[in-house]
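#struct-pred
JK: can someone run the complex with adenosine-5'-triphosphate? inputs below
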Amino acid sequence: MRLLIIGDLYGQIGAASAIARSRGAKVAHVIDIEAAMNALREGQGADLIMVEVREDIEKLVTLLMRERFNLPVIACGVKNDKDAAVKAIKSGAKEYLPLPPNEELIAAVLEAITEETQSMIFNSAAMGKTIAMADQIAPSDASIMITGESGTGKEVIARYIHKKSKRSGNAMISVNCAAIPENLLESELFGHEKGAFTGAVARRIGKFEEADGGTILLDEISEMDMRLQAKLLRVLQEREVDRIGGSKPVKVNIRVLATSNRNMQDEVKKGTFREDLYFRLNVITLHLSSLRERREDIKPLAEHFIEKYSKANGVPARKLSEAALAKLTQYHWPGNVRELENSMHRSVLLATGNVIEPDAIMLQGSMEETVMSSAAGGGTMSKPSGGGAGMVGRTVDSVEQELIIDTLSHCLGNRTHAANILGISIRTLRNKLKQYGEQGASIPPPPTGTD
Ligand SMILES: Nc1ncnc2c1ncn2[C@@H]1O[C@H](COP(=O)(O)OP(=O)(O)OP(=O)(O)O)[C@@H](O)[C@H]1O
Ligand SMILES: [Mg+2]
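RT: done, structure tokens with the ligand placed:
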């Protein structure tokens, strides 16, 4: 865990750092937001930011998002300043921590952030086998290709492997090749020198260099274009990277994990993925089964998510009724574990009695009904019938917009999952959302820590 502290925490920085260090965190310190952004651009890795509440937290969160540093921000302020706490959370901070620092509280925050990336819940023999294989290959430096449908836990297992590897004391850097616009991915991965292209106002260290000594996760690698694939192959062969506009290559010591929800052999056959790169990356393949192929995992996962979201929402963790469990076990889970997680999050918020009953569990089938009925105009049609006849009179564009925004809000803002359900690429989804946003529609924000 790498902690970056911004400001002197009202004179409490020494105490806060000492507590964090005693819990195994590496602590770095900068004076203000600008210095923090510069440090991150220069390759100073961090898993968590602590910032004084008097700094401009909204600006910090916006900058982090704009430059795709996916880091939780914790605001720190003087005890009992409720207004400051509320304002910080509204500006995008994940938590508010009162000062002087309390040992227990800091430990709990660090633990929660670490746990989010660590827990690996399962009960099925299929997952048992996959994990045993992961345990076996984790200590080596071999590249691993992790495949499986969307939401099956590819990123979770990648983090698990890193944690069990010799590199666990160093960073694991994850890059989502599908979510970053094509023209930015190259500088994201390789970095650039100041002035290398229009807009390159400062030098920026790429993700390969940031991951030096650790692991890099290339998420959704099948989305990388051919030219970058060639550059990546060179990194794997030579273990060095060329910054854009740089004059000489930089050596890197990295282990590469890659994920894809496509069949990579098909991509190679189609000619959209280089065969030589595929063989380099695919020293070992780990395939994660879909959730419907390992139904024994549904119960422990559901219980885990209920506990997680009950805690987060400050409500008692209810048990699942027999009927609710049966509903979960029978469903086909096209969005796999992520969909189960979203459903359980909703059910925690919707449940009223002592236990969670089936009516608190909304699945995609029932969501389709809601979408269709609202698309029909003011709920005049309670169920879709006759191919959506109730939508007559509306334009394709307006129905499409409603479908996309409703699906996204069902997925609690998760772009990847929504794109999968809609059967469109994440890039198309982003373009559409941008267009709707410009037209004044309200777009569900991405959940923090994902996407
Ligand atoms: N075995 C597991 N134990 C606990 N949580 C899990 C497990 N598998 C998946 N999850 C949770 O499900 C969600 C989806 O997992 P993850 O992001 O790893 O999926 P993915 O296969 O990478 O999906 P995508 O292809 O859409 O990127 C995450 O919130 C993760 O925490
Ligand atoms: Mg993923």
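RT: quick notes.
Confidence is low (pLDDT under 50) at residues 366-389.
Residues 119-122, 148, 150-156, 259, 261, 337-338, 341, 416 surround adenosine-5'-triphosphate (ligand 1) (CB under 6 Å).
JK: thanks, will look after standup
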